[in-house]
């Protein structure tokens, strides 16, 4: 049943550019899809290991800057009068490097921060994101600082025998984001349902018991952080090559909050949760913009968020799945109490 629903959902999403002719709405779907990928990567930590990272946007921004600088090239000075010159490489190489370097950063952050828990871990992740933002803001020779990196080339896919296909249009970028999102979804699903995924869930539910049966806490959480950061880096690369301009505002805290909202409202710990929550809260501002003033939009946004969490406290997907399971469960005879059992027994 779940497989059929997933296939139908993918088919419906794949058909959107064939009938949606409004470029504004298609642009909103593309940017929403990119942040859905980021939310799925955050859900791997928050939903399956129970670790809240409020600096997750750092990996998104690292992926964006790495991919942009790889495809634009740079020339920076080094201590001792030396210069580091990098000629532009194809954007597809930048996309791969964004995944690798974001994953490497996730490894070092996880190795250091997973030695602490709770509020200390949250502070470490926020601090890391702020340090990366300040580097992007102040290393003007490399990142152009607040002036932004501009004219970032679009991703081009090599086609053997036909040259290459440059993904400039919204039509092309929509399918690129959809394919990457589907790959990320399948990767996370495969990981969650593996032995490693059971280890992650064990740590989230009872860390003491998980340690007692031989699960290496730091190793498990660090691997989860690497995969999560790598997927976020892929989303950042897609963002950079689609928007074609990035500045340090990509590290804004509101972007992390947006991802957290997508995960929590959709249902943390469920595969489809970030997708459902992401589509709702990614497209909700687009629907409110024509009918409300900016101040009223934020009030309505918060009202919808509170209403969902009040009515469906576990998130949309888990709560609806639970109610559907109760509705489909056949009604059996009422349970027999201990008193009734004793009364039926012969004296």
Report a brief summary of the structure.
The protein has helices spanning 2-19, 23-46, 57-72, 91-113, 119-138, 140-143, 170-192, 195-205, 207-212, 217-243, 253-266, 273-288, 294-311, 316-328, 338-344, and strands at residues 74-77, 83-86, 149-150, 156-159, 163-166, 245-246. By secondary structure, the protein is mainly alpha-helical. The radius of gyration is 23 Å and the shape is globular.
Report on the architecture of this protein.
This protein has a domain at 22-252. It has a two-stranded antiparallel sheet with strand order 1-2. A two-stranded antiparallel sheet has the order 3-6. It is mainly alpha-helical. It is built from 15 helices and 6 strands.
H-E order: HHHEEHHHEEEHHHHEHHHHH
Strand content: 5-15%
Gross morphology: globular
**What's the total count of β strands?**
6
Overall average residue pLDDT: 88
Distance between the termini: 51 Å
Number of H/I helices: 15
């Amino acid at each position: 049943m779940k497989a059929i629903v997933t296939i139908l959902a993918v088919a419906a999403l794949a058909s959107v550019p064939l009938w949606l002719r409004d470029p504004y709405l298609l642009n909103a779907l593309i940017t929403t899809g990119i942040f859905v990928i980021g939310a799925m990567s955050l859900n791997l930590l928050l939903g399956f290991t129970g670790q809240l990272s409020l600096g997750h946007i750092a990996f998104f921004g690292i992926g964006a800057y790495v991919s942009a600088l790889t495809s634009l090239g740079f020339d920076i000075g080094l201590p001792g009068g030396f210069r580091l010159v990098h000629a532009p490489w194809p954007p597809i190489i930048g996309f791969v490097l964004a995944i690798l370097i974001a994953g490497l950063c996730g490894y070092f952050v996880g190795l250091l921060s997973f030695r602490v828990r709770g509020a200390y871990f949250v502070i470490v992740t926020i601090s890391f994101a702020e340090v990366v933002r300040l580097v992007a803001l102040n290393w003007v020779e490399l990142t152009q600082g607040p002036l932004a990196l501009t004219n970032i080339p679009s991703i081009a896919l090599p086609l053997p025998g036909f040259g290459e296909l440059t993904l400039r249009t919204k039509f092309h970028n929509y399918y690129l984001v959809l394919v990457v999102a589907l790959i990320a979804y399948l990767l996370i699903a495969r990981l969650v349902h593996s032995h490693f995924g059971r280890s992650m869930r064990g740590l989230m539910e009872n860390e003491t018991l998980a340690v007692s049966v031989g699960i290496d806490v730091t190793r498990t959480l660090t691997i989860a952080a690497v995969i999560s950061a790598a997927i976020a880096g892929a989303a950042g690369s897609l963002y950079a090559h689609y928007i074609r301009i990035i500045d340090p505002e990509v590290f804004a805290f509101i972007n992390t909050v947006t991802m957290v909202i997508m995960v929590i409202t959709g249902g943390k710990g469920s595969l489809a949760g970030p997708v459902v929550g992401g589509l709702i809260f990614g497209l909700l501002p687009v629907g409110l913009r024509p009918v409300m003033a900016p101040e009223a939009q934020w009030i309505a946004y918060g009202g919808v968020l509170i209403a969902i969490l009040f009515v469906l406290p576990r998130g949309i997907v888990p709560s609806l799945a639970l109610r559907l399971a109760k509705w489909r469960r056949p009604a059996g005879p009422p349970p027999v109490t201990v008193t009734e059992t004793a009364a039926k027994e012969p004296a």
